[in-house]
Amino acid sequence: MRLTGGRGGGYRPPMEKKKVTVCYFSLVGSRRGIQTQEYETQATTARELLHEIQAGNLIVLNTNIVKAAINNEFVEWDVPIHDGDHITLLSPFSGG
């Protein structure tokens, strides 16, 4: 059991790490040099995962990521991620 200091000092359970598969499409993949990687994270949402990856310099910060998909479904950035999820990060694209 871990107790936190500060105000209230209540119990805070340790952050649970998840193992996810991250797929980088288009420009993101070419800048990373890989298309898919297994990734261990404490992020709870797609947004947090993106920020974590960017903070670790795994994606060039000026790479414009506009969309995320979890398990092959486009999602809003604040949708929760879970252990075993397949998360795809997409840069802008066009076509038809």
Explain this structure to me?
This protein is an alpha+beta fold. It has a single domain, classed as Roll (Ubiquitin-like (UB roll)), CATH 3.10.20.30. 18% of the residues lie in helices and 26% in strands. A 5-stranded mixed sheet has the order 2-1-5-3-4. It is globular and about 50 Å long. The chain starts with 17 loop residues before the first strand and ends in a 6-residue tail after the last strand. The model is unreliable at 1-6 (pLDDT under 50).
Overview features:
alpha+beta; 5-stranded mixed β-sheet; 26% strand; disordered N terminus
What is the class in the CATH system?
Alpha Beta
Q: Quick one: biggest sheet?
A: 5 strands, mixed
Low-confidence stretches: 1-6
Order of adjacent strands in the largest pleated sheet:
2-1-5-3-4
CATH homology superfamily name: Beta-grasp domain
Q: Which percent bin holds the helix content? A: 10-25%
**Count of the domains:** 1
CATH fold title: Ubiquitin-like (UB roll)
Give the overall shape, derived from the CA principal axes.
globular
Structural class: alpha+beta
Counting DSSP E segments of at least 2 residues, the number of strands comes to: 5
Mean pLDDT: 79
Brief summary of the model shown:
This protein is α+β, with helices and mostly antiparallel strands and 96 residues long.
Can you lay out the helices and strands and say which pair or pack?
Layout: E1 18-24, H1 26-32, E2 36-41, H2 46-55, E3 67-70, E4 73-75, E5 86-90
Parallel strand pairs: 1-5
Antiparallel strand pairs: 1-2, 3-4, 3-5
